[in-house]
Model the fold of this input.
Amino acid sequence: MRYKNVVPGRFLVRRNRFIAEAELANGIETVHVKNTGRCRELLMPGARVYLEKAENPARKTPFDLIAVEKKRPGKEALLINMDSQVPNAAAFEWLPASGLFSPRTVFRREVTFGSSRFDIFAEDGERRAFIEVKGVTLEDGGIALFPDAPTERGVKHLNELADCVRKGFEAYIFFVIQMKGVRRFGPNDALHPEFGNALRRAVRAGVKLLVRDCRVTPDSIEIDGPVEADLKFKT
Done:
């Protein structure tokens, strides 16, 4: 996945979930934040950010905030893509060549099962699989964690993925870590233990767990290698 017209800036302040201010070379701009999560450890005053210029010149926010450099004491800054829309698109792009499915598989996006709409549906004859994608932007000491805010919707998705398995489908929960260099992944039990418990129940029920990191540049993101998942990990 590649962005167009990306420029660097310096983060100033977040006004609300959707709006922030950043300093660019030609002055201060109001920008759209493409992630409604808390992102408190990322959007720090003075942080270097990367913004994509909107194609519509009449838009009220002329830039989208897509990536940030997270400072780490004694280490190189960690570049994190924080666009919450890109993991689904990146997964849809990656899955056909992943080796998880045959070349005959047809992939569709946004398919409903029960009361949930899952991100991707894969079908190859009698083999049918629902895939829910979650983008991960929270890093702590080399550990990637999800979620960064309580998510009842995420718990609901996990419960219904387990129901998919019980009804004869395959089901996957796919965590796309929007950075490179983490050592492992775990549920953020300290913040939302219900999600961690739901994840463990889903895996025990037969939901398959995928965790991959990404190669990230200021203007691109591409799903890369597997990351070890530790479902017993507690923050």
